[in-house]
TrEMBL record:
Function: Could possibly oxidize fatty acids using specific components.
Catalytic activity: a (3S)-3-hydroxyacyl-CoA = a (2E)-enoyl-CoA + H2O; a 4-saturated-(3S)-3-hydroxyacyl-CoA = a (3E)-enoyl-CoA + H2O
Any one GO molecular-function label of the UniProt entry: enoyl-CoA hydratase activity
BP GO annotations: fatty acid metabolic process
Matching Gene3D superfamilies: 2-enoyl-CoA Hydratase, Chain A, domain 1 (3.90.226.10), Lyase 2-enoyl-coa Hydratase, Chain A, domain 2 (1.10.12.10)
PROSITE patterns: ENOYL_COA_HYDRATASE
Protein name: Enoyl-CoA hydratase echA12
Keywords: Fatty acid metabolism, Lipid metabolism, Lyase
Amino acid sequence: MQTVKKTFETMLVEEVKPGIVLVTLNRPDRYNAMTNTMFREMEQLAWDLGAEDDLRVVILTGAGKAFCSGYDLADADDLPHLGALGMLDQQERAVRALVALRGMRVPLIAAVNGAAAGGGFSLALAADVRVASPGAKFHAAFVKIGLSAGDLGVSWLLPRLIGPARASEVCFTGRMVGAEEAVEFGLVNHVTDDAVAGALELAEQIVSNSPGGVQLSKRALQANLEASSYAAAIELENRGQALLTRSSDMPEALAAFKAKRPPVFQGN
């Protein structure tokens, strides 16, 4: 993959197994806090990875002790002085990065290896799946610094993951949610001693399946969170299935089943 050969200032990008790319936020001295440079690089990375035909899964984690501590408060002093439109531009810069990552055609797994706070919490929520280490902590810290938890998608994603009452508690109190409680809430899929290793194991299971099937499954799951009705959701599902029966992977899966052998998917 050409993308993994690029050098980013705030991230390390590596193809750890065929089709599986590991992205590591790489500001460990600042607990991988977000900067405008990181936002630009995240957006660029998402676009670059989208051009990689062999891409199957992306894993996102943090270097050192944290996943991501949110916006770097060392850069926050100027925020109150930006003016309304200047602050809106700042917000939209951050949002574009998270929307680009969430919108990648392949599954995004967050391997939460430590604290995911503020914007880092939003980043974890933007993933399709979350795998956490026992020391992971989730912190909707916005109200602690005079801001709203309606930030970078939290107010839309969190209630859908854990329900409105629990989401309200987490956002209004600004308290930490540990890994085990996050599993209980449904915020995290699995807790494992090594979050990246756990995410990689899950990624390998995904890679064994039809690439087109996985990608259109992601599209249907995300789009139908916003569908206006059951009928609209069914219509989208029908279109996906009709498209996939025109690919080479479904006939290959049927042939492999009859021959009692593993399928060899081509993704076309």
